Amino acid sequence: MEVIVGSAIMKRIASHQQDLSMIGHAAEFVRSLKTAMASA
After folding, report:
1. For residues 40 and 9, what is the distance between their CA atoms, to the nearest angstrom?
2. Angstrom distance (rounded) from CA 34 to CA 4
3. Packing angle between helix 22-38 and helix 2-15, nearest 10 degrees?
């Protein structure tokens, strides 16, 4: 699972690499994963 999540995070970063709020986008994605895993 770590590889899949890591790849998804890298794709998210790559898709927003020119965006100054890229870290925020990646953090939001990680938060959504964390929330989903906590409620599972």
Report:
1. 20
2. 14
3. 150
Diameter of the chain by CA atoms? 34
Low-confidence residues in the chain, pLDDT < 70: 1-3
Residue 7: what residue type? S
pLDDT of residue 4: 78
The rounded distance, in Å, linking the Cα atoms of 29 and 13 is 10
Q: Which amino acid is at 22?
A: M
For the chain, how many residues are written?
Answer: 40
User: What count of Cα atoms within 13 Å lies in the side-chain half-sphere of residue 21?
Assistant: 4
